[in-house]
Amino acid sequence: MKFNILGFGLLFATLLSLSACEDENSYSAPLSRFEVEDLTVTSGDESVTMQWKKQADKPDPESYLITWVSSSADEGAKSEEVDGKTTSYTVEDLTNDVAYTFGVQARYADGLAQMIKATATPKTTRIPVTDFKATAGDKCVFLSWTEPVTDLNYKYEIIVLENNNALKTLEVPQGTKSLLVSELSNDIEYRFDISAVYNHGRSETLSSSATPGHITAISCLPENPHVFELCKLEYNPAFFINGTISSVQWSVNGSPVSANESLVTMFSIAGKNTVTVEVTFTDGTKASGSIDINVENFAWSEFPNAGYQKASNFAFSADGQTLYSVSQTSKTLFAINAITGLARWQQTFEAATYGAGIAVGPDGKVYIGTEDKNGSLYALTENGTIRWTATMGAAVKAAPAVTSDGYVYALCDGAKLIAYDADNGNQIWSAQLSGNAGGVVVDANGNVYAGTSAGVWSYSSRGDKRWASEALVVTERGGSLAINSKDNIIYAVLKAKAGIAALDMNSGATKWTYPTSNNDCYHPVVDNDGNVYFCEKNGGLYALTSSGSVKWKYTDNLNYTYSGFALGENGHAYITQYGSPFAILDFDPDGNANILSNITQTMSPVCIGPDGRLYYGCNGSIQSYNIGVQPLRAGWYCCGGNLQGSNSLR
């Protein structure tokens, strides 16, 4: 009897185990059950289609058990039984963007074969519109959107609502990108719901609201700009409701300025400025609208607590909205909002220099050398983040030169000239000269010129030596070289009463020299006729022609230390005077001097900004004076060659 009870127990356990195999997918199926092959799943819109094959030369199953389970905890496992001759099945009513695991098991008379699995995530094909905007008009609202990217057919349904109550429903055909909704009431907010309606359902709904009312034809940001502040003006499509606009023409104070879709500009005149836009419709008719903009005057004239800017040049961003200056005493590079006079950012270094000024590249990066123990050259983004640092091994006393084709050239004491990749700071080539750093400049062909206390050298952009003129003692620090591309001349200011030398750019031969009488000379600038202007420390001011003759000289006051001219488009030359009386001087084309303003102590070259103001460094601050004159923008018109201080014509 004991044996019979044990045998019955073993039989019951075996049957129970086989029964459990009905729901188990990880067992080894008996040889009489054959799992499916090549299960593929294809995602649809709220659906997934499964396809499979039964094993060749194997008997057909009675049916297939289809199961699917969501990765979401909100949905449980589901199943469906299909006929044994079926080899595909589409699971409907799934949730888009949720992953599912699908399984197929062949059912035979003695049970289920092993489960074969695959995963898929259904995705919507009912693509919605994007960039849906509602722009208020006078008793109307202009709707615009970007069409869905799809090959399917659809139409739009737009519902107009007031206080969440639907007022009307509009059907709009495929291919439409805008709609003017009229017969609305002013001063009431309306909501507009848009969806794309496909044959298999509608897309996600997008909403936008607007309140009709009295409108202007043009919007301006900022609404009340300062002079020379960049503004963006756009026309209001709801103002022009007579058709589809094919072209626009913008005018400022009666003068045409642009045919772009929007206008980005700045105003040079404070007070009322009238902007007009004229639109042309596809049928050839025209309409126009205007706006009067109250432009405020300059917001500042002094940036305080800036330390002392000595010898280094100013530089501006390409759009003229940021002014860069470096203080030798505080060791700080300042980025100043040229409109508000407030600091955008500042970067303090271990050591600064009063010779190696700022250069701004075509991509907005800012380059500056320092006199720290490593001889560091920095590249900073326009937001003030250090992009890269290069170590030159000695004080970088010459401002870098930056080209539009991605080179940065720097010269340090010990006369090492290095070409860097402007993007990453990798060294491209180097040349060992002699003497201490004076200046480095680049001509329009990419040739490089370096001046030191031992001479002037020229190299190609590849680093091939072109020539050397080792009989000159170029002034150390600052912008000691300038290019006269009209007459193929490199000007180099010299030390110890040697004045200035003019060298042939191709051969390095000295065309002429002009000695002075007192001390070192600084910061040559060149007008569009090739005339060169420079100052002598504790000496006079000079303007020479390209042949070396005196255009004019000024020796009434000999108080100039590290001073440098800036040239205006009116033919005048501007400079600040170091030593009492401290002043801004304006020289007309004949060399007649006019004192524009008395100032405090200064020891730096000046710069005419894009706003028509003269910028100069004083002991403790950066100041500006409105001369109402634009920079020359030809020749080598300020220290650094141009407003970006790039020291390059390339």
Brief sketch in words of this structure:
With 650 residues, the chain is mainly beta.
| Mean pLDDT across every amino acid position | 91
How many strand elements?
54
CATH superfamily of the largest domain: YVTN repeat-like/Quinoprotein amine dehydrogenase
Provide the low-confidence segments as ranges.
1-27
> What is the SS-derived class?
mainly beta
As a percent range, the share of strand residues is over 45%
What is the share of helical residues? under 10%
C-alpha-based Rg, rounded: 38 Å
What does this entry look like structurally?
- With 650 residues, this protein is an all-beta fold.
- The protein has 4 domains: 22-120, Immunoglobulin-like (Sandwich), CATH 2.60.40; 130-210, Immunoglobulins (Immunoglobulin-like); 218-295, Immunoglobulin-like; 302-626, 7 Propeller (Methylamine Dehydrogenase, Chain H), CATH 2.130.10.10.
- It is 3% helix and 46% strand.
- It has 1 helix and 54 strands.
- Strands 3, 4, 6, 7 and 8 form a 5-stranded antiparallel beta sheet that branches. Strands 11, 12, 14, 15 and 16 form a 5-stranded antiparallel beta sheet that branches.
- The chain starts with a helix and ends in a 24-residue tail after the last strand.
- Residues 1-27 have low confidence and may be disordered.
